[in-house]
Write a structure and sequence with these properties.
alpha+beta, 2 domains, two-stranded antiparallel ribbon, 5 strands, 51% helix
């Protein structure tokens, strides 16, 4: 039996295919699905609930590129209209270049915001613990980390190493594999 996310993803793809793969909101898709009898309305703010479920399902949908890279299929662009924030989803391979460019730029901005908050949190922690504990050093340049993860994606990892991949630099992992 399909999971809730898988069912919502299936409905989304049926809807967006019928719209020639034009980016649209999850709310529009669930309104359509309800009118078609594909989804049932929950009792509390039903469209918002379903749109939230669909957005999460779209966010969670990944495929694997023929060369083995796992990538996110659906990409969101947030737009404010009349003081209301709307999210339009597009499917990679079908969404316009402009939509994908905006989606990637917005995700980059989220990452920058997360990094700024992380730096602030670390700095405040260090200030609060000055002289009591060693300062936590946080490297904010991810160039080497991204390159290492890209190389690790090319390697078929034994299960016993899957939990250490995120904390060890690649040279340490490769040394452990040789042992």
């Amino acid at each position: 039996m399909a999971t809730k996310n898988e069912r919502l993803q299936k409905v989304w793809h049926k809807y967006e295919t019928g719209r020639q793969h034009k980016p649209t909101s999850a709310r529009e898709a669930v309104e359509w699905a309800v009118s078609e009898g594909l989804l049932e309305l929950p009792e509390v703010d039903p469209y918002d609930v379903l749109a939230g479920y669909m957005s999460q399902a779209l966010r969670d949908e990944y495929q694997t590129h023929p060369d083995g890279r796992r990538y996110r299929v659906n990409h969101a662009v947030r737009v404010s209209k009349g003081g209301v924030q709307l999210t339009f989803w597009g499917t990679m391979g079908f969404a316009s270049h402009e939509h994908m460019e905006k989606a990637f730029a917005q995700r980059r901005e989220q990452i920058i915001g997360d990094n700024l908050q992380l730096k602030t949190d670390v700095d405040v922690y260090n200030d609060l613990n000055h002289g009591k504990r060693p300062a936590i050093q946080m490297v904010m340049d991810y160039t080497d980390d991204v390159a290492e993860r890209q190389e690790l994606q090319k390697i078929k990892l034994p299960n016993r190493f899957s939990s250490i991949v995120l904390v060890l630099p690649i040279w340490q992992y490769l040394g452990a594999v040789r042992e």
